[in-house]
Amino acid sequence: MERFMQVVNQVLRSHKAPKLHEFGIHYPLDASRGDLIDIWVAFAIAFKVSKLELNFSTNQVPIWVCSFKNYSFPLDFFDKTKRNEPYLVQLDRVFSVCAPPLNVDNGFECLRELILKSVDLTDEQFETILSSCTFLEFLHVLYSSRLVNVKHAVPHMKLKSLEMYRCFQLKKLEIFAPNLVSFKYLGPKINSSVKDAKQLVHACMRSNWETWEFSRTNSLGLPNMQRGDFVFGQFAAYLPQIEHLVMDASSFGRTKVLDNGPLLYNLRHLSLSSLNFADGPFGILGCLKWLHPLLRSVSPHNYLKEVLVSGFSGNKLVVDLIMVVFDFAIELEKIEISTAYLGDPSK
């Protein structure tokens, strides 16, 4: 780790250009190295970085390497309301780089992509980033444990892609992004509102096994949100324009939305996942029950050409599901069945 940090500092010392197009750190650092990471982030922002990626995930790394205390993103770097002095990027005790003065009115217009993995954001920091980075087009957040109620009420005109994965404390998400094309979510059931997204064509709304709630009531004794409402309720207005849809088989649940007429007549790609339980509210039985009306709602035409079944274990219910697809996909050209699971969108 010490060697890695020395190499990064050495690389930054050699940087001479006034513009930094891309800056990424891929190493399992944590909060104990926060002061140094702050310096690196300040360096990137000061030199008008277009793509900033901080990946401190511990995947495929020995457990002793990291203490699992997530790095917290520094709010001041993106807060236009604070008249910051020009950055003095100090890489170590004997070397410093005086960055150009930042214009607090448009100092972050260069940032187009922001990818944060195992970086904790507060609700306030999330809002500040979107408010300050007005030219941001792509935002990816994975394993941010402090997000609870995320809200951005002012229209963000440039944001095209928002990906939120495994933010386990998140309860509510409200985004106003008129030009949003892709929205991908994997995590606990939440109340979500994506406002005025007339360009939205890619949608992923999934729970994962770490967050599946088998109880019908929550800690307050109130009924849990039905999974059908998670997709077909909250995103019903966008279903007619969706071309690529990824969701859980359990989303079919008890919903009657599909009985109200065609909802998915622009759909070109559909991905369903299930834990393959034979019983219970989240089993594949619900998927079988609703797949017929779902496929009828796709279009009067037959677009389905290829089917991929991953994670196949020989379950008879899965076989029955495949046979249901055969009933409707009369133009089917290829079907691929794999025992490996290939469908995690956060990879």
Count of runs of 4 or more consecutive helical residues: 6
Strand content: 15-25%
The number of distinct β-strands equals: 18
Radius of gyration: 23 Å
Helix content: 10-25%
Topology:
Elements: H1 2-13, E1 22-26, H2 34-46, E2 51-55, E3 71-72, E4 88-92, E5 95-98, E6 113-117, E7 119-120, H3 123-132, E8 138-142, E9 149-152, E10 161-165, E11 172-176, E12 182-186, E13 191-195, E14 202-206, H4 227-233, E15 244-248, E16 269-273, H5 284-298, E17 306-309, H6 316-328, E18 334-337
Parallel strand pairs: 1-2, 2-6, 3-7, 6-8, 8-10, 9-11, 10-12, 11-13, 12-14, 14-15, 15-16, 17-18
Antiparallel strand pairs: 4-5
Helix pairs in contact: 5-6
Account of the 3D structure:
It comes from Gossypium hirsutum (Upland cotton). Residues 12-208 form the At1g61320/AtMIF1 LRR domain. Pfam families: LRR_At1g61320_AtMIF1. InterPro entries: At1g61320/At1g61330-like, LRR_At1g61320_AtMIF1, LRR_dom_sf. The structure is a single chain. With 347 residues, the protein is α/β, with parallel strands linked by helices. It has two domains: 1-195; 201-342, no CATH class. It is 20% helix and 23% strand. The protein has six helices and 18 strands. A nine-stranded parallel sheet has the order 1-2-6-8-10-12-14-15-16, covered by helices on one side. Helix 2 (34-46) links the parallel strand 1 and strand 2 (51-55). It is globular, with a radius of gyration of 23 Å. The model is unreliable at 62-66, 210-225 and 276-283 (pLDDT under 50).
